[in-house]
Queue: 4 jobs
Job 1
Amino acid sequence: MIITIDGCSISFSGRTTIIKLARANGITIPSLCDLPRLEPFAGCRICLVEVKGRKGYVPACSTIAEDGLDVLTTTPEIRELRRGILELILAEHPNACLICAEKSACDEFKSTIRKTGEVTGCVLCPANGSCELQRVVEDIGVDRVHFPSHRRPGDVRRDDPFFDRDNSLCILCGRCVRVCDEVRGATVLTFVARGSQTVVGTAFDRPLLDSGCQFCGACVDVCPTGSLRDRARRYDRPHDARKRTTCPFCGQGCGLMVELREGRILGATPDPTGGPNQGQACVRGRFLIKEAVHHRTRILKPMVRKDGRLGEVSWDEAIATVAERLAGIGPGEVGVAASGHSSCEDLFVLNKFATDVLGARIIAGPWTASVAGILEQLGRATGQDIPLNFRIPDIGRAEVILSFAADLSVTQPIVRLEILRAARSGATVVTPGEHGLTLKSSGVVFFLAALSKILLESGKAPAAGAAGSGPFLASLKAFNLERALSALAISKEKMMEIAQAVKTRKPGVLLLEPGILRLADAAGSLAAAWNLAVLADLRIVPLDGLANIRGGLAIARAFSAQPVTAEDLAAAAASKKIRGLYLAGPFPSASPAAEFVIVQDAYLGETAAVADVVFPETTGLESLGTFVNIEGRIQQADQAIKPRGEAKPGWRLLADLAIKMGATDFGYTSTDSVRHDLIHRVPAFRHLPGTADPSDDLFLQERPATPGAFVDVKTAAGVVEDRLASTPSDPDSYKGLNMARETKSLKLLRGRHV
């Protein structure tokens, strides 16, 4: 098909709009309400164009391109029409600066007075320089407003955390309302009142905090003016640099653009094109990056305990102290804890130091009790290789989703968006909130087993030659379906409806998060989930919470030390099986029972406060590193700023310590030199180039999947036993900092008392 825009012939296929075709071919059509990922709204009318043969003018953002259309976008009549429409918009928006004859010289002579309480022009506006309305006024050439000015009602709303709402700057483009509904599925914001009294607000004018808002920041990011603005940045000067990096706070690996001014972090916005998030984020990545890096509890210098008190010392003294004390502890008598927030480079050198220098027999890491780790072990116990790699957008394309995960809006917000996308496309979605299913009840195993039995009764047979099918069929034969349905309070008809969808609609996914492994019947639930997936050809997707679970799991397999949980490590210390502790990760006890305790962390938490030596470690924004997200995607987190104080990357301080202790194979000088050894020692990284490009679409190497085999509860119990952490990891914790306790705004959102 061919369309002509301003005399330019453009070939296209599929369903698209005039404005998308124009922009893809370098033709500018101004707009204030149109935005990718949002349904056409045609509210601002700035994008009106002429289509030859049609009466009047049509909005380019909502008009579907058709074969043979001849479109004009810049005729004198259209320019005049746009100018009049824009004047009407400006009549309800502070416009003194927008139409000022001296605005071209203003930046050179003006003084900064942004802290005024009321915005009457651009020089007072927090969006000055980044406002889309400014650009549209410049493009269209408005230099006068012929209509009387009208200020939208209401004061600036500052009663919610994270951002302010100023209706006097709103142009009613509807972007915030639509992104909240169409993308985030929250429907918190809406249009209130009518006519000249219309504003964007909430039902019954309640604060956002009381309206179900998760403060993801999507509304702030799409606002074309200063109506919605990040409070922490409201009075900052504009950024002078931006750096792309990966959010370090959870396992989704969202791409972020960190905005800087003179080397200082101003804040972060989601990368519209990078990572699995595609322009979306959560409250932590969107609003807490700056506060985390500059938090008052940051450890900025090494500390050594003298006369019962920690005091700051030089790096040389701290390393010498640790080297001397560890030399007096025999091989294998030091336990090591690793963190799921550490980079692959840090984890590789930590594992190498633990095994090659300390002779450690056990290394604690969160991957031991992760869903990915348990599934991998269960596959090995049944003689099969299962795929753990996936792509988050594939969840949004699934036809059936069975989700056994807790509050995804907190733990996996981007995954939750994909579930919403699938549901809006007609997918069958079953979540814990339905039918009384929760991760604290025995209903999970009942539900999964009942679903399997109904599938078998409906004629769904196991794949030919599937190992373990005999015991599996026997267990279901003895399963009391009526009793299970009664306990679940689900009718058989409803369960048959779900089973029919699972049987006939493809692809299907089964989402599991670590909460299922903490159930009283964890082994039974895991076996039931595994067997249902094998029977119905569902893809099991592990949703572990920390930033580098998959990377840590792959690295741990390459070393000889036994992987254990942090609780196991604490028990070994309490029973005096080990004499020393090197804690580069979380520890369940604030008072470790060991002769000598070293803590490598970024924040002074409870354990660091009672350590014998504390090494200051950089955050994910202060060092270059590689992370593997829940998809198995290998991502590079770029260094956004220089390390604060004397903090060092984990690999660097461990290499210095190893050399001080006489090791000869730790002469690392850069992240790339560590990555070189990582690639050669850990098979899963063998296709990672020496220098990773953030734009590369790289995944961990996996062995080809083998035909599914059923498991029995005894086998599952053997895998689960002694591998589960007793307490879940807090999604709001990062490297010793609990952001929900230490940050007032997040504390309000999570419902904790200030």
Job 2
Amino acid sequence: MSSLTIKVNETAAPDLIGLVEHQSAVPPTYTVGMVYECFQKTAHEFLAVTEEDHLLGVVSRSQVAFLLGSRFGFAVFGRQGIGEHLLPQFLQISRQTPLLEVFEAALSRQGDLFYDDVVLVDESQKYLGMIPVQTLVRLQTQMITEQVSLAQKQQQELQEKNQQLFRNINELRQSRGRYEILFENSALGVMLLDRYGVIETGNQRLERLLGVEVPADQPGRMNVVNLVLAGEREKFRHLLQQLEMLPAAAAPNGGDFTLSLPGRGPRLFKFFLSWIQETGQICALLDDISEQRVLERRMQQKEKSALLESLVGGIAHEINNKLSPIIGFAELLATEMRRLKTASELENYCLIIRDSAQESARIIRQLLQLSRPHKVEMVPCDLRQITREAANLLRFRLRNLDCKVKLDLPAEECRLMADASQIKQVLINLVINAADAMEGRPERRLELRVVPSGKHFHLFVSDTGQGIKPEHAPRIFDPFFTTKAQDRGTGLGLSVCFSVVRQHNGEITLAETSEAGSTFKVTLPCGDLPDTPLPVRHVLASGTDSSFNNRRVLIVDDEEFVSGMVQEALRLKLGCQVDKAMDGAKAIERIRETTYDLIISDVRMPMLDGFGLLNWVRKQRVELVPCFLFITGDAGSAEMHEKLEKSEITVLRKPFDVETLLEVCRQKMPSKPRL
């Protein structure tokens, strides 16, 4: 990324045209489909809609993709003029707009609007181009650095002039000089403090940052130390003391502190401090860097998420490969012992091995759901089971917290149509917040309660934490709003909960809060489901299904234990003739030599992987595509998962039991053997 260098001075703002990234535009007569093609040829996220070079509005890549990606999207919207689908909100600025006003308008936007490009026009509404918000952030950072350097230089000059002023002019002339030279010309908040932190004077920028008025004729009515969060207050006091006691070269020059501001909540500020020896005052420059730190944390979180996805995916793949033969051979062993009429206790041992391995597999699937986003699937599920699984996932953390957990669940099923993993994520977020709120409390109790009510289920999450302050309650579901320390929360947990519950046509509210704890209430609609019984676990039957005798099957997997288990299951239970290959390249050699009724392939393999083998089959032996089956412990990245879904090939995820394997194989094999 190229660096951004724009000279900024006091008399003139930089020419905004220099910030333009592109001037791409389309006429309003273009259809939505034509605009979609335009987006495919460019990396830009936004295009202007102009008529005779004059701006009519703005469209975004995500907006056009949403229109065409919906059901019948191309048919309904593809031929409509793009002028009918302009973004309802976008930021438009004039070329003559002062730069600070541009920053204020662009960087104070909330939610997803913060990341939208800014449209630049001239006085006659002629379209000049798009300015990315990232460019404005970098430019603001540059200006802050320049202003800090200028302020430090001005401060040094002021200290030198103070000596002359004290000898030659009176205190009124001295104060007026400071005000004119430094305070009102600074892009940062500037204030003079006494040695205890009492604000004696400040500039207008300081008043905007703090949200309070600091009149010059009423000095000393506010102490900045009282605005600092309690946990950082002692550190701030110590910093003020060091400024007075230590030599200028050894004294600290500032730091980052969180201020609790009336009506604005906690905000993070960067302080630049210096001691004025002549007056016994502290000169403080400060700037609100809350949004900057949020962006930094989001980038760090993305890197952590990518690392987590890579680690969890790799571990899941390896463990699932090991669990598959454990489950399969345990079932086969139990079947053989029944056939040989061996002791029933040994058969029960095999079933215990299988059940334990399957429980491990369920835990791995839950971890995978948490480590990467997945396609939303609304399926029938039981809210009681979701609640139990969420509590089990966090039982170690709650146990370390010495927290008593109570599950109050109905005896009957609580059926609803939902994406179980997303509802589970909502519960996990609420429980984690509750655990954080209870740290350091003398009594720690958590209750998860499900209450059926007509056509809805009410889920209550109650804790004995410190509660939520009344001034914070209206903002708890806002993105990036958090009262936790910077290293404990991003301010996205409750916002994600709110979004997920709304997608399920439900509601989430703060039902009750006080110093004794809080209760969150999640309301979800009941599912309109047939009265079907819960799934019953099948026990593998003895004997061989003779209808599949002598069918030829090829197993392609670099895990010898997995391929061996599948081979034994198909040979013993279906009477199939089974060949094995370690990778896609060796599988192609086998397919060229032999006619197969079924191909079972892993996804991730050395040399040629499962996708490479599938592509070869589609080109060279297309008749085998309906008989192609993927098995995988984990496909890896989100891109690989998406590729797997788009392949339209049946996928059996490891670990699987033998009965599931046999059922899928019966469905995939043709009614008659291939000759």
Job 3
Amino acid sequence: MLKPITTLLFLFIVFSTQRNFSQEVKFGKVSKTELEEKFYPLDSSTNAAILYKKRRTYFNYVQDKGWELTTVVHERIKIYNKEGYDWATKQIRLYQGNHGEEKVSIKANTFNLVNGKVEKTKLKSNQIFLEEVNKFWKLKKFTMPNLTEGSVIEWTYTFRSEYYTNIDDMVFQYKIPLKYIDTKVTIPEYFVYKYLPSYFYPIKINESSKSRTINLTFKSREGIVTVKTKFQSQKVDLTEKIYSSIEKNIPALKDEPFTNNINNYRSKTSFELTAYKPKNGIPKYFNNNWNDVTKTIYKNSNFGGQLEKKSYFQDELQNLVSTTAPTSEKIAKIFHFVKNKMKWDGFYSKYTSIGVRKAYKENVGNNAEINLILVAMLRGVGLNANPILVSTRDHGIPIFPTTDGFNYVIAGVEIDKSVILLDATEKYSLPNVLPLRTLNWKGRIVRKNGSSNSISLFPKKHSKNVCFLKAEIDDEGILKGGERNSFNNLLALQKRSINNNSSESDLVSKFENDYDNIEIDEFETKNKKDLSKSLFYQYKFEADNQIEVIGDKMYFSPLLFHTEKENPFKLEERKFPVDFGVPWEDKITVSIMLPKSYQIESLPENTAFSLPENLGSFKFMTVVNGNKLQVVCSTKINLSIISPLYYESLKEFYRMLVDKQLEKVVLVKK
């Protein structure tokens, strides 16, 4: 408990800080108090904190160009230690399209306390870099100069864009605490946006309106012999809608185990343009529902137009599979062909970059080019194949209809009332076994006739790891034996992707390190490239650290080096779903020959327990036959995602699981 004087000092720091930041913070002026602060009063564990953030977003009408969206940001951050240095690097994305490039101007300073005086270091123009990501996006990047522990950094930038269909989210929560934020978005009545606040951390958004007058200048030409240009001005009155918020002391958004993309649960408000309604013009409506979104995407020449191109693969397709072959054979052969012919360049997009024809010729492309080639070839043999739009896990979950909600495309084959999901960017994938990056709630299948449907991306089959370990313990407590580990579905895909390019010696080192530094010999991989079968790793091992010998007794965990030692769920409560990615099952069978000079004194009791609603189960059983001990342990999770409503049950489930696995087998000398 805090002593009274300490409590008063703590409250004084907090409230005086709030009072200081309730007023306008001037760019370029930092107090000694900010620089002297050694830790953030409300979270002493944080490495950095956002002291102040102000944002203003508004529209201007630019003559001969039209409406321009402007966002002005001023941000000040305190760096407490070296682990907080990452927050001194800033990246600003700039789009470049048919209407030109987005622009940004930047000013920034680093402040340090040197011999009791505030020292300011300005960011120079040659310290700001422009990186070209692809033909659509650039990055303006900089890292603050003269950075030390205790620095205060700040920047202000003005961002201008003619692409006003999407306003950047109003973000209120970051991975470090935010002390004070003042944000405002002002929208002319011509633009109809819907906005969607997030609810994981409550933020109050105030709505108001104000009147504004803009000047429009019209240019006309008069005369027959002598032509003169005449300019006329017209004042237009309009109403603007304002969304604003001032918040203080917002806690850090801390990552938790099994959260998918933590940014999905960030406190923010999103905007989506639904209509443009000029006073004396024809209204223009934008994507108001998912069918509108998918039709817009399909009509794009870099999407639906690419599916109409077929001549580039016809010769190879004819030699690959007959149009009269069974459906399963058509899918398998074409899928295998595209996976092996095409190399993914690592770029995510729902649109092609160089086009399917060129990508096919060069054997390399982005995910859209590869999977649209796959769709076209499947259609070429008479299958009902269509692209499926996906938002990858790091892109977020598209909550309301928007073309920006999707950033990836896979292939789907509709058979009866089911859809077979395919992603040819991943050479170790199988039908309905997608890479983890695409397993993000739901995708949307897009058909040639303009219809679309939501498609669940969650796997229906469990990914299984089955381990069989056979060993013996000698009189000195040395453990020797062999193990065989098998993996299927997503687990096999992931293991192959990570391990197939590693040397055997590297894999042995990795397994030894993962398994309590046991010594491994005669290591072997089976079905490394045969995707139709489970992946196997098998080896012999020896360990002198698994059996604890004290006096005339031996102690060891029944699952040996496969023991789960720690509960991953530590929070008192959790607001986010627990995302395992896939349903999974882990089964371990351990068979141990005990030393003949010892006998069993005690064993962990057999047990079984489960999660509510059949979400998961745990079974533990021991069987003794002479001097042979057999242990069977099975853990099963039946849903990819578990609601936070069941977090307390899941946390208790894992507590009991860990406690059981940590119980010891006790042997005593005869």
Job 4
Amino acid sequence: MRIVETEPNPALLNALDDIFFAANESGFIEVWNRAAEDVTGYTDVDAGSMTLTDFFDQPDSDRVSAAISELFETGDTVVEAALVTADGDRIPYEFKATRLPEESPYAFAGIGRDISERKEAERERNAILNRMRDGFFAVDTDWRVTYANEKGEQLLANAMRRPLDETTFEGLHLWEEIPDAVDTAFYEEYHRAMETGEAVVFEAYFPPLDEWFDVRAFPDATGLSIYFREITEQRQYREQLEHREQVLKDLYSITADRDSGFTEKVHQLLRLGRAEFGTGYGSLSEIRGDEYRFEVVAADDDSIQAGDTVPLEATNCEVVATRRETLAWGNIDRDAPEQTDRAGYTDWGIACYLGAPVYDNDGVYGTLCFYGTDTRAEQFSEWEVTLVELMSNWISYELQRKQVTAELQRQNERLEQFAGIISHDLRSPLTVLAGGLELAKETGDPEEFARCFDAIERMETLIGDLLALSTAGEAIDEPEQVALGELAEQAWESVPTSNATLQITAHDTVPADASRLRQLFENLFRNAIEHGGGDGTVTVGALQNGFYIEDDGPGIPEDERAAVFESGYSTTTDGTGFGLAIVADIVDAHGWEIRATESDSGGARFEITGR
């Protein structure tokens, strides 16, 4: 082999920085220029015994051999391969070769160009693209893939249903490989970008992959560069936020509706909660001692009705009320196995539960809860817990507001009552006192002075009862355990009892305000003695959930028993009519109930329950 020196334009060929070579049909190199010798490090003698493929290692030598075969079929070829020098260095080259005419002494000739800088730039670009958060791939104007970064290759492999590690994506036709994408937003937007030369940005769902993508496609003269990002989680989160925002708007609309009453609003909140939590039942319930009463119910069936009562111990709500905290059990057997012995689980089949305490001004009123017979794979979320707490907080506020409103109304009524008493009942003894003093002044008659003292005593009694009535109904914040028998004896000693006898059979204790409970006994004892003629027996006895005071006097007519607790009611001319009204207020302040009935002997009996 010889360096080009005797061929036409040898100076031109040797002046080239690129490699020039010519070879015979067997691929042996016949001539090359000086740049080829300088780059490879082989002499012309060495090269004379080498074929073109001898300058490459596997698999590049196979690719060069295939390119030579293509050359004889098509007339020219282009191939990239790493040229191996005599020193073992590997230099990336791009070779372009052309088949020569038959009259030429050589079969084909070609030029090799060092593409090290380009390859380095490509490596840097690929490194950058692979570090990108987005996936990327490019196609030419014939829709064939020209490049893809790692995320791009993964996407293409999934969409094309090809193994990632065994696929070379360059050269694959986009739409032939992904026919499911034809006539989708991706197909339409990519074509629009290619046709208009303008970039497109869009979000679209691709059903075969069950994913949402944020896509940006930029066209140029060589084809289309496509950047994409999977946004399924972000989109789901955004949709979740939009849904929750709507739920909060619905909650506000329900609670702010001035045309709906409290019960109807609770009904709507229960329906809203059931839809959000996916439970079959929702209820607002009140806890009354050991009983659990359903106040408002929303359910798929009529197995539970408003007004129904069940034992508190059968419900999970007992735990909510005791702990005074929200409880969320997506699967009671899994999340709260210690509660599986309750009837709610064993008999009613309640498998999931979400409940929050509801408060009025006296403490825990009951619970707002949602429950169902199907378990949940996941626990109730923080959002669901927060939502039920928002609902229970509003219900608590409304209950407390209603109590305050009722108390204000009661106080206003009491003020009006007091004003009436002051203007009427006190005016009468004042008139007697004024007239008596005038006559006493004129006549000096002792009887007139006695009338004056009687009027003063009457006013003192009225004023004392009014003061007692004004404080009897005040809430009791810190009750103490009071022994009924001992307190009854103390009250009996402070009342003029004439020849009457006290009998005590109640010896247990009750949580109460001792001072006001003593006043209750005093008023009931006084009432019994005044209406019983001064003798007889007054009994203080125990009930299952309270106590009673009864006498053996004439009793109270059945049609008057409800009226005796009204202020001003009296059957005697010298009574103020406030004694039993004070008793009723003391009972209310303790959260108890009082009922006037008949004793076994026909006398008056007052039963106080709910302690």
